[in-house]
Amino acid sequence: MEYPLSMSNSELMSDAQAHAAITDTILNYAEYVDGGEIELWAELFCQDAVFDEGQAVTGRAAIQALLPKLLRLFTATAHHISNIRIERTGPHQAKATSYVHAWHKKLDGSDFEFWGRYVDAFAFEDDAWRFSSRKIEQFGARGFELNVDQVPRREPNIS
User: Fold this and answer.
1) Phi and psi at residue 24, to the nearest 5°
2) N or C terminus: which one in the chain shows less Cβ crowding within 10 Å?
3) What is the per-residue pLDDT for 68?
4) Spatial CA neighbour of 131 closest among 40, 22, 33
5) Upper half-sphere CA count for residue 45 (Cβ side, 13 Å)
6) Is 7-142 in CATH node 3.10.450.50?
7) CA distance 14 to 61
8) Per-residue pLDDT averaged across 133-146, rounded?
9) Where are the beta strands (DSSP E) in the chain?
10) What is the pLDDT of residue 138?
């Protein structure tokens, strides 16, 4: 049974429905960045969201202002998302991690590649699952220097 997505009845959404909607938000992020859809990209964030790509930016308006500055560095981008894990933490909240491999064509024609992970919190706001926070962590990069936190690594338990 499909439930209309509204704040008043989001608690009636099954975990599978919430998972599908949150997955769409995660995938739309990549599609909108690669398509240069700045307004659509910004609408994926809550009004008071925090976006941390090495330096935290707070609020949808500030987040929206950031994307054109980033996109001006490249003539093309392609973000590939995988390893999506979502945990619903309440009727209107969830957390997730996903991996990203992002290719960028720099203005000089050279390539920049990034391997990392997104650490996300979600809230159901204005009839949609939106990022309440997104932190980008890197496994590695080639072709560009970034000031992004490294993905924490646990010490192997070798007996």
Assistant:
1) -60, -40
2) C
3) 93
4) 22
5) 25
6) yes
7) 31
8) 90
9) 45-52, 56-58, 74-90, 93-106, 111-125, 128-142
10) 94
